[in-house]
Amino acid sequence: VKLTRPKQRSAPETIIALIDVVFFLLVFFMLIGRMDATAPFEVMPPLGQSGSPMPGAGSTISVSDDGALALDGAPVTRTALLDEMERVIATEPERLVRINAHRAARLRDVLPLAGALEGLGAREVVLVLTPAEP
Amino acid sequence: MKLARPIRSRAGISLVAMIDVLMIMLVFFMVTSTYLELAMVPLVEGREAGGAPTAAERGTRIVVRLGGDGVAYVQGRPLAAAELTALIEAARVDDPSLEVIALPSGLAELQSLAALMDAAAAAGAGNLRIVRLEAEP
Question: Band of the pLDDT at A62, cuts 50, 70, 90?
Fold first, then answer.
């Protein structure tokens, strides 16, 4: 008679630990991630030391180095941008408007825009900076 | 004789689908997250009642012209950032409420305006006004 010892099944690797890790990573990225519309062109904000922390929310106007415009990630013409902003500001005058302009953008493409937004009644228009080390 | 049907063990809920969903969400947030730390400077702020100060209420002013080449000029003299800071600091000794007026060229790059604001801030000048260009050249 040949006696065979039953094969011991190895204990299955627990996947609970994996799920825990993945879940923590997921929560981490959900918390630190910031959902924001990105510009359809490259925008590198100017370096500056004199800025203050930027709050979230609001409208973002992007300006490329050649003067192209985008509103909340969608390319727009200047006329369409001002029409849309007029509508937005009329309903919400306290809305923060961020001008996220490329550091090589000409001031003739940026400063008149701020003036036009002020003329539409915007109460708070800010220029986005990349914090620089002093 | 009693025949007993073997008890079927209940099928466990598969965790594979949940792991798949978690992984897809994780990858999504990892890819879409931005880690840029950005700052801001106000270009337009809500005006307080009373309007702009009159000429008599204004103190000393210093006008800094920003050329199209990005160089700052004071009374026609080109100044580096450190020289501009020193000049404003010296002027603030006489009048701490010194007003710095930036007169930028439309051809200047935005970075040069940010550098000018930094130079004024480094000198402690909290009263900086930018003469905005309303019309394109």
Answer: very high
HEC-encoded secondary structure of chain B: CCCCCCCCCCCCCCCHHHHHHHHHHHHHHHHHCCCCCCEEEEEECCCCCCCCCCCCCCCCEEEEEECCCCCEEECCEEECHHHHHHHHHHHHHHCCCCEEEEEECCCCEHHHHHHHHHHHHHCCCCCEEECCCCCCC
Classify the complex by whether its ipTM is higher than 0.85, answering yes or no. no
List pLDDT tens digits, range B9-66.
766 777 778 888 888 888 888 887 766 677 888 887 765 544 555 555 566 888 899 8
Candidates A33, A107, A132; nearest CB to B33: A33
- Rounded CA-CA distance B6/A26 in Å is 43
Query: Which residues in chain A have Cβ-Cβ distances shorter than 8 Å to B44?
Result: 114, 117-118, 122-125
**CB contact (8 A) between residue B111 and residue A18:** no
What dihedral angle (degrees, nearest 10) is formed by the CA atoms of A48, A51, A55, A58?
-70
User: Are A111 and B135 within 8 A, CB to CB?
Assistant: no
pTM over the 0.90 mark: no
Q: B1 to chain A, minimum CA–CA distance in Å? A: 32
Cβ-based burial of A16 (10 A; exposed 0-12, middle 13-18, buried ≥19): exposed
Residue B133 has a pLDDT of 61
Chain B stretch 83-102, residues whose beta carbon is closer than 8 A to a beta carbon of chain A:
none
